[in-house]
Amino acid sequence: MTQQRAVLVTGAARGIGRAIAERLEHDGMAVLACDLEPDADGPGVGHAADLATREGNRGAVEAALERFGRLDAVVANAGLQHVAPVAEFDEDRWDQLIAVLLTSPFLLAKHAWPALRDSGEGRFVAIASAHALAASPFKSAYVSAKHGVLGLVKTLALEGADDGITAVAVCPGYVRTPLVERQIADQAKAHGMPEDRVLEEVILAPHAVKRLIEPEEVADAVAYVLGPGGRAMTGVPLTMDLGWTAR
């Protein structure tokens, strides 16, 4: 069994998840970097899993325990997006988003719970987005799932209190990731505007500070939550949205 603290990070091949895995590995944690298509050259120990399935989530936890002999933290980060009006929203895409964004964090918590309890200081972190606190048009599945994740985190915090398990939802605004970049064409179609206007007029519109957040900034927040300074944080959103929800 490794003496390092061990963490499972999902969606770790790119974007926010990769930045988190890199930061936590740099901080001395053993990292299982889980993704549908892991990057062999990325941080941590790569593990392939389809988190839209029950087997994929259970297998990811089992792989971390088999590799490290322990599991002290879970960072549920994997995500995807679909932009469309409710009347046109594809039902299969709804199911897929709910599976990855809401059911996966639940399943990861369920299967990791005994190990987090045994850790004595288990931590569960969900990357929940400012959309856990506010809504945007054309994102019914994403907003619904992220609101649900915040509710899940609150429940985990109450259930884990006696066992030393904390749960926090990190809620960033728009982050400079491939997920955000891929939204531009869909947002242009949904709003009926040219793509070159989407970033400023749609994506950054809710931010009081008109810039994208960098993945490393989210990684810094997660590292804080998982470190000594995060011991008192549980059942709450850690909001880093450049003023979005201040309005």
Q: Could you characterize what this model shows?
A:
It is a single chain. The protein has 247 residues and is an alpha/beta fold. The chain is 44% helix and 15% strand. The chain has eight helices and seven strands. The chain has helices spanning 15-26, 54-68, 91-119, 140-160, 178-181, 183-191, 198-203, 215-226; strands at 6-10, 30-35, 45-48, 73-76, 123-127, 166-172, 236-240. It has a seven-stranded parallel beta sheet with strand order 3-2-1-4-5-6-7, sandwiched between helices. Strand 1, helix 1 and strand 2 (30-35) form a beta-alpha-beta unit. The longest helix is centred in the middle third of the chain and has 29 residues, at 91-119. The chain is globular and about 55 Å long. The N and C termini lie far apart (49 Å). The mean pLDDT is 96.
What's the helix and strand layout?
Elements: E1 6-10, H1 15-26, E2 30-35, E3 45-48, H2 54-68, E4 73-76, H3 91-119, E5 123-127, H4 140-160, E6 166-172, H5 178-181, H6 183-191, H7 198-203, H8 215-226, E7 236-240
Helix pairs in contact: 1-8, 2-3, 3-4
What's the count of strands?
7
H/E topology pattern: EHEEHEHEHEHHHHE
The general outline is globular
* Poorly predicted tracts of residues: none
**Average pLDDT level:** 96
Biggest sheet: strands, sense, closure?
7 strands, parallel
Sheet/helix structural class: alpha/beta
The number of helical elements comes to 8
What is the percentage of strand-forming residues?
A: 5-15%
How are the strands ordered across the major sheet? 3-2-1-4-5-6-7
Distance between the termini: 49 Å
Computed CA radius of gyration, to the nearest angstrom: 17 Å
Proportion in helices:
40-55%
